[in-house]
Amino acid sequence: MKALICWEYGMGLGHLTRIKCLIQELEKRNVEVFLVTRDLHKSKLFDSLNVKCFPAPTLRNYSRGHISISYSDMLAHIGYSDLDKFKTYLRAWKNIIDLISPNIIFMDHSPTALLASRESGAVKISFGNTFSIPSKSFPLGLYQQDKESEAIEIENVLVSMINKATSEIMDNKREINSLYELFEEYQYNIFCSEPVFDHYPRKLDSSSEFYIGTLSTNMGEDPIWPMHHGRDKKIFAYLKSGNYLVEIINAMILSDASCILYVDGSFNLNTHLPSNISIVKEPLNITGVLKEADLFIGNGGLNTTSQFIKESKPVLLWPLQMEQSLFVNNLINKSLAKSIVKQNHNFILNSINNALDNSLPNFTTHIDSLSSVIDKIIGDIDD
Predict the structure, then answer these.
(1) 183 touches 124 (CB < 8 A)
(2) 103 backbone dihedrals φ, ψ, rounded to 5°
(3) In Å, how far from its chain's centre is CA 3?
(4) Looking at domain 234-356, what is its CATH homologous superfamily?
């Protein structure tokens, strides 16, 4: 049996860790695994695994600063609005799928790969966080309620363009009338999340949809906290690079806590850091971090944020893009997080002090295990 794993859009270690967990489960079942991934340079994380890695055809026409009003609007602003470019990438995905000829395709936020797989006889499975699979609606994934009519217009244009590309490239020229119809190609949805963290209101079909919680592996070294004789508290921050980091770093310094900051991307700080803070360049073992950190500061990535919340540890979040903003607002409405977005270091410092004095309530939820879900799907295929 051959499995193809696709990762087309998104960023952060959460994608890599859950994909690694999936590959490990498939290896146990003697499945031959192919991975077509963005951020191919990070595929060294899979060196110990028997997986064949290839770069993903990924549209990267991002509009910096654009705030999407819907899921269709987000796709339009990452390149779907350019018909010629979209056709090129759709054809590339179709060629990959035809060449590998998999029995199963797992797709982590990979809408172009999903469309390209239409003629494949493979079982199609979404595998990722809930943001990438909005619950059924029209327009799909409406993020700004006061702009529904504009979102409908954008989706209609996008659907028309998808149908035109399909008619020129695919043998199966079936048209879709709404963007959600594309996601109905999935036979199973595996949500690497939990109901409380879902980006959308959703009712599961228990026979084909599953929450399995966030997945993590012990990648990276254990944390080495700065030797510091000040406040007996530890702060861990995992943040995307950017100028906004200056305000957060200044607040962390003034907190007098022992702090570790992992920056994803290139960032140069033109100042000498005091003894209570260190910046690391490689990911840390999150299990070790969770045991010792008292507070998490992040952008609102699902994996790390939810792991801290499940440990009843406070989180402060500065979202940078729509997926993170949607998730952070959901958490704020449930009193599970605080936002520090676009605030100065004095506000952030006060938020740190307040957070360190309070812990989150415990909560439990029922989820399935990845192993049991894979067993069910393979069992269904064998039957």
Answers:
(1) no
(2) -85, -30
(3) 21
(4) Glycogen Phosphorylase B; (3.40.50.2000)
